[in-house]
């Protein structure tokens, strides 16, 4: 089901794929081969060239997609197929094209006290993993000594830097990285936070957040889950995370009640 976050999502050209970051392509390469994506590569061979030269290690994946449709004609309605593909990765596309549109979505207006009331950020070193457009980072920046935004999407890193400059935030530093491999040493931060990031591999992700956090520091996932007793909730509570419910307001897809989680490293 489409999010309807980006109103012109179906009009995005196939070349928009070349704005995606390396981790997007790695994610696609680890999933089941997509025939629709294979037809895009067949119809727009320069996209295959780009991927193979940008990430040579994904050459075998590209070759496999090409093999998948080599004996099939290109669909007559490629415009619809491209629109379907763009719609299927709408969150990625809005990040790499118009991140401010994402920032303005209604659910991002949740009360920042849901985050700032969980611990004292005064004078602390904070790491925000998967910063996105900066909801969490900018909420705690007025209190923290320094805040490091870890974000794998280049266009979002640019957005964060520009926003910090416009808002005269001088204690914020933006770096490339992913939650499975946070680019800081052990016991680096007083507080590690994230929002809408944890979920692919709970053990790996929370272990990395705890690794970079000092003993006695806080690990906070806000939001960390939908409001449901699902496997994410079960795994987090089993390893000692406290939780409560709060509202991400509005009518945009993604709005609704969410769960936040927090834990002190011992």
Compose a concise summary of this entry.
This protein is an alpha/beta fold. It has helices at 22-30, 35-43, 45-54, 59-68, 78-88, 90-97, 99-103, 113-116, 135-140, 154-166, 202-211, 231-238, and strands at 125-129, 146-150, 172-175, 189-194, 213-226, 242-248, 256-264. It is built from 12 helices and 7 strands.
Describe the structure.
The chain has about 270 residues and is of the alpha/beta class. The protein has two domains: about 10-95; about 105-265, Rossmann fold (3-Layer(aba) Sandwich), CATH 3.40.50.150. About 40% of the residues lie in helices and about 20% in strands. The chain has twelve helices and seven strands. The protein has helices at about 20-30, 35-45, 45-55, 60-70, 80-90, 90-95, 100-105, 115, 135-140, 155-165, 200-210, 230-240; strands spanning about 125-130, 145-150, 170-175, 190-195, 215-225, 240-250, 255-265. A seven-stranded mixed beta sheet has the order 3-2-1-4-5-7-6. Helix 2 packs across helix 4 (about 60-70) and helix 2 crosses helix 5 (about 80-90). The model has no long low-confidence stretch (mean pLDDT about 95).
